[in-house]
Amino acid sequence: MCGCFRDIDPDSVLAYNTPKIVRVKDRYLGLLRLTLLVIIAIYIVIKVLVIDEGYNISDTPIGSVRISLMKQHNSEADTTIPADENFCISSPEPWDYPAEKDISCQTWDEHGVRYPLEEVNGVFLTTRVVVSDQKLVCGADEQPCLMPWADETDPKPVTYFLAGVRAMTLGFKHNFYAPTFSKKDTKSKFSGSNNYFTGRLLDSTGKVVRVWEPTFDDTPDVITVGALLDASGVDLEAPSSDPKNSQLYAGAVIMVLVTYDNPGNGKVRYSYHARPIAGADYKLYEVRWNKDGDTAKRTSLKRAGPKFIFIVTGTLTKFSFQATLLQLVSAIGLLSLASLIVEMCMLHIMPLRMHYAKVKFDETEDFSDVRDQMKLDPHQQSSNVNDLNAALLDLRETGMYRGSDGAGGPAGSSVAARQ
Known about the structure:
Helix 3 packs antiparallel against helix 7 (about 320-350) and helix 7 crosses helix 8. The relative contact order is 0.14. The chain is about 30% helix and about 25% strand. It has three domains: about 20-55 and about 320-365; about 60-315, Sandwich (atp-gated p2x4 ion channel fold); about 365-419, no CATH class. It has about 425 residues and is α+β, with helices and mostly antiparallel strands. It is elongated, with a radius of gyration of 42 Å. Strand 15 (about 285-290) and strand 16 form a beta hairpin.
């Protein structure tokens, strides 16, 4: 084993590679490097800085939405069934769903249409209801019973469409804060309610269809149910996931994203983005107990209609020196990548790679051998060592080299050798 290690030259194993700049006059290599630099520069400027705004840090706001439902009080819809409701059997227009053609209409107020009456970040509006009186048929004696309640046959369950729901108005009151940005400054611009910012309603194509200006009071954003449905692209008279029924009959689920942002690190604003969930319907079951206290009777309401779910989200940004510095370091690394790619092509792919390698890499003498030679008598030293001593002497005479003995050190022996 010792013999194996004896053949290893430590100066070759532990050789130090020092950088060397070589100007290679080859148009193809120069063009390749220039092309890579331009591509990387365009990516950094357009994608990283302009589009992604890499000099910013971002935070996602969180908050809650309170919704109120109100009925318009200046129209005949308060007391009569609207004549333009195609689904009402009194309408002269035919209804496209034969299974629903015998369903009559009723007009309920906002307290009857909305169920439940209070819900955070959501509201359910009834457009179809099945009303049935039920009686307790078993289970009163605490005996096992599979179906304890049954519908009364007299009167029979009745199905209604509710007219005038589109004409009702929704009021939105919401607030938000950015957890990271507001952690140290609770009075920053990254928190507050909708009354202090400009709001917009966007339709399904991203077009602005409604704008709310700051009011600096407690006034909610008011919009009709019909306008919100139109902005989401939902037509309650269109077929549901079951083509035999309308969405008025089956219900729908609509996500309303309350999106906060501040483009260009400017003023904060918010937008309503209403989008339906494809193939989703919505139904609820409500029970009303007998007012006379008869626990053996109750009224059930099977409701269906649009369910609006509100989510506060968005992206808020502000300038960060640390983020900017990180992008600059990344940019430098990408620019260095261009040189690395050209180097690899030059040394391993190009036809003249052997010639490029000769001018790029230089190997020095084995300096262990040089030091061994310098310990010998000057007349026994090789020509290489004498040349090295001559170079050291020149450095000493110009004041650029000093030996440890104050008299030139190794260069002293070179002087003696010359003399």
